[in-house]
Amino acid sequence: MSSHLVSSYRTHTCAELRSTHAGQTVTLSGWILRKRDHGGLVFVDLRDNYGQTQVVFNEAAVEEIQSVRVESVIKVTGVVTKRDSAMVNPKIETGEIEVHCVGLQILTTAEVLPFMIAEDDKAPEPTRLTYRFLDLRREKVHENILLRSRVIRKIRELMHGMGFNEFQTPILTSSSPEGARDFLVPSRFHPGKFFALPQAPQQFKQLLMVAGFDRYFQIAPCFRDEDPRADRSPGEFYQCDIEMSFVEQEDVFKVGEELLSRLFQEFATDSVTPAPFVRFTYEESLNSFGSDKPDLRNPLRIKNVSEAFANTEFQVFKSVLAEKGSIHAIALPSMTAPPRKYFDDTIELFKKWSGQGVAYIIVEEGGWRGSVAKFFGPTEQARLTEMLSLRAGQIVFFGAGQSKRLLPHLGRLLSKFADDFSLRSGGYHFCWVYDYPMYEWDDEVKGLVFSHNPFSMPQGGLQALCEQDPLTIRAYQYDIVCNGYEVSSGAIRNHEPEIMYKAFEIAGYSRDDVDQKFGGMIKAFKFGAPPHGGFAPGIDRIVMLLAGESAIRDVIAFPMAQSVEDLMMGAPSVPSEKALREAHIKVVMPPQMEKKVGAA
Fold it and tell me: Whole-model pTM?
């Protein structure tokens, strides 16, 4: 035990004692995890941050220990005793010994618990989050938070080892078009004006490059007013923000691969993709996976088979091809065909997702059968067999339509089939997705918007912005994806003022807009900016993957509920009239809320 942990409350932690300590008198402090009454003897599992130890109370202390509830905090002095070989508990580190109590002090007592700590009693999420301090005592959640600490410590070690320096950037800043709503903070000193909490330290880290610091990183809090998802915490998240000067895209890729491959190799309990990672362009990823977040554990791919139907007489496919659409297929491995109901249910589910149908064929030695098999002649069958390497026992699903609309739904089918037929392999599979479009069309604003990071360098520079169709321009933007989750996003930055003005002009911003919104950065670029780029791995998502969790809240100490509320602290809350006056704010409730308040 570290000397700084020794105090009047403990000589050892609850994970430390072994058979070599037998005969020693020790002092432990912790929470009562479980109690078991064996008639004249009471066995207590005593837990602290480090682990647990079994403590035995004899007749003298039985009444007192029985008077306190589980999760009360006690201090125990006792003698370490070896357990009989038949009583050794291999599930805990201290399973070879137990401590026979000779002195008990009850430090604090617990009330009746809202849910069990020692066992998972499936308490509702709102209850768990309201009493999050209790939920954090549960072994799995507790270990997740400790894992998070170790991961962050390792990230710092790796970053310093690669020559990066850690800096802190402001939390109160100006609004920035990062693709989500800002959280606004009113200024008491400047009535009617607001700070914004940073969606990312984007501008500041670029300014650090202009200032000549060369290699920066920060474990940075980021704030985005986004809708909640299982893999995204509402309101705030943490990322390892990284930027470096005098680099091209390939240089950034090398740093990203070294950081993530070494980090996962340190903590993963399964195999990890070695560097260099597999790479897909954005278009390749969409065409093969229906998504820019491919899960390489899934062996299935989407294949464009339009060529096989160039001369088809099947009217559905013929019409789609005539309208410049395409035919895509997903070929499952050889298997015993599932019952007809499976195919019917899959077709119905796909209709629910996409509003259109999906067809299938089953390849058999004596011929093909399925919903569209009769429409495929010998030519189509031969070409499909060649394109998909088909053999007996395989099932092929077909989707037809405009690729942009169709592919994401076929991507959902890939995931469904992987789950239904247990096709996913183990391990952590990394890849790069790069060459993202610089712009996309937004139906809501009826115009072009940035598709990724607005501060990215367009491929082709100013000439591309002036001469190309904006929807064909690619940016030096890239993501790192692991097992279907985006774990990092980044770009080579636009560091030239005229290219920046033109890039924002295409997205509907005037020069005055750029000067007003990004004045600090555009001004800095006019005084000599180095070529620079970076990326930002997400801490929460990385720890979620390493912990084997499916919900990001399970690796955050104090997460918000899906209702975007802190149920434990009661946030958001109604400010006092005095606070509103000082901030020069008048609250105008939506009409439906006014009705509710009036009815109350």
Answer: 0.92
